Amino acid sequence: YHFINENKSWTEAQLYCKDKNHTDLATVSSMADMNRLRQHLGNRSAWIGLYREANGNRMWQWSQPDVKFNESQKDEWYTNEPNDVETENCGTLWTDKKWADLSCNRKQPFICYNSLNWTDAQSFCRDRHTDLISGPEQMEKLDVVKTDALVLKSEGGFVFIGLFRDAWQWNDGSSFSFRFWNLQYDDEKNNSSCAMMNEGGRWSSENCSVEHPFICYDHVILIKENMTWEEALYYCRHHHHDLVTITNLNEQIWVQEKTKNASSPFVTGLRYTCTLGFWFWVSDEVVHYKNWASPEQVNECDMSGAMQTGGEH
């Protein structure tokens, strides 16, 4: 990330980032990214790459950015839900572990636990745990007795989960659902279609024409040409920096986003050495994080690493 201490409008800031050989305004995919950004921000405010189009379609998403919402999960909703009675943009667990939409400002128990509105609940979970529970797979692992007891105690039998919808999107096309709004965030605020980061790292919406400092970032670039692994390595080192290295889940998620537009498997900077008998990254990083397909990797001479463009990548 690169903090640019010049006041520009959101559009001017985006153009600056692209013109100065950065990738774009900062995209934030997780709390790990947030913590890195906070180190740069200090007590200042700055633009990030989140915006919404006028009259944009609201889409359901899970709070955890690596859990994708599947529109085919219609059977999970309770009868006649979601009904959007009063601009209901947050998801709850209701009768028989079915889902219902609810106003994000309602105070309900949540999983994790306690009684807060949805934004406060999300912050509570992220500060003390990982996130609000997200996705059917995580819900199937819930303790039925404890969950039912929580539902019975709550007003109207609702318990918040990590499901929400909004019209905001990242300007680089990423589909990350990570949001870190301030606790007084108003989604209906007029003429505020661009997001900025405030002191403490929380986000607020702002008129895009107001001038602020901003944060650029450099990131993964997809080259839409088919090459051998060695040709790809030399191309990246000549035109950019190096073939991509993936050392943790956060980096894995970033690279997965870029593979969406690839027409063939995505080459990585992973190579097997016959002499020493192990896999290594060309950046000299040790291979700790692994995401091999099954059956596992073949340990033979002249083998290189590539990421599948679909499935579990």
UniProtKB/TrEMBL annotation:
SMART domains xrefs: CLECT (SM00034)
C-type lectin domain mapped to chain residues: 1-113, 112-217, 212-301
Domain of life: Eukaryota
Alphabetically ordered keywords of this record: Disulfide bond
InterPro entries in the record: C-type_lectin-like (IPR001304), C-type_lectin-like/link_sf (IPR016186), C-type_lectin_CS (IPR018378), CTDL_fold (IPR016187)
Pfam families: Lectin_C (PF00059)
Protein name per its UniProtKB record: C-type lectin domain-containing protein
